[in-house]
Amino acid sequence: MESPSTRSLELLALLQSGREWAVRDLAARLQVSERTVRRDAMRLRGMGYDIGSRPGPGAAYTLRPGMRIPPLLLDADEVSTIITSLMVLEAWLPGDATAATARTKLEQVLPGGLRRRAAAVALSTQVIREAPMSVDWELVGTIADAVAQGARLAFDYTDQHGRRSNRLVEPYRHLLRQQHWYLIAFDVERDDWRLFRLDRMQAPSISPTSHERRPFPWESIDDWLTSDFGRR
To answer: What is the b/e burial string over 80-95, where b = at least 16 CB atoms within 10 angstroms of the residue's CB?
Structure first.
């Protein structure tokens, strides 16, 4: 069954055309009842979207001229969660403007009511925690692409003793542990699961060769870490 958020997004997309839509036509296009269309329109109004209506037997809806449609459909609790999460990153990584920039862009595309909620959360939130090491977001993006594609990742690596090596791995997850960012991956040449610090990785590239996705053999990452990387 289609979620209310997905259905509301489709309703907004239709209203964005600028024309007046009869409720019965919207119901037919969305394949729902007219009552559902009215409920979704009320929901969008509650989120701050300026939707006009014409009552009566030929009831219809329009999106007010000049109303800019944000690319996101979020409720107040979801906005609070996202803003708080971004503020955690801002506090942890004071020299990295990425999180602050993302928060500013998000606030700019929210409708009035949700923008006020975002501002209120930012004003009332204070994060006090020892910051982790900075992270290379481009590297994080490369790792994420490799994981999503089920692809292998090649990179140069310098271990804790200063020894350099070339690695080819099947990445599984990246995580924050003891103030450092790490990659959990299966090392193809060493035939074992390994933990790599992201700040020791250089020149990452996604390997074009295909392979069968390897399952992580432990119940959870916590189990693997607490068992001395599977040795106990």
So the answer is: bebbeebbebbebbee
Strand 51-54 with 21-22, pairing: unpaired
Distance in angstroms (rounded) separating the CA atoms of residues 41 and 8? 8
CA 13 – CA 10 distance, rounded (Å) = 5
CA–CA distance, 57 with 141 (Å, rounded to integer):
52
Q: Are 121 and 82 in contact (CB under 8 A)?
A: no
* Paired sense of beta strands 180-187 and 152-158, if any: unpaired
- Verdict on whether the full-model pTM lies above 0.85: no
What are the φ/ψ torsions at residue 154 (nearest 5 degrees)?
Answer: -110, 140
**pLDDT per position as a tens digit, 1-43:** 456 667 777 888 788 777 889 999 999 988 899 999 999 888 8
User: Using an 8 Å Cβ cutoff, are 146 and 206 in contact?
Assistant: yes
Instruction: Compute the distance between CA of residue 177 and CA of residue 222 in angstroms, rounded to an integer.
Output: 11
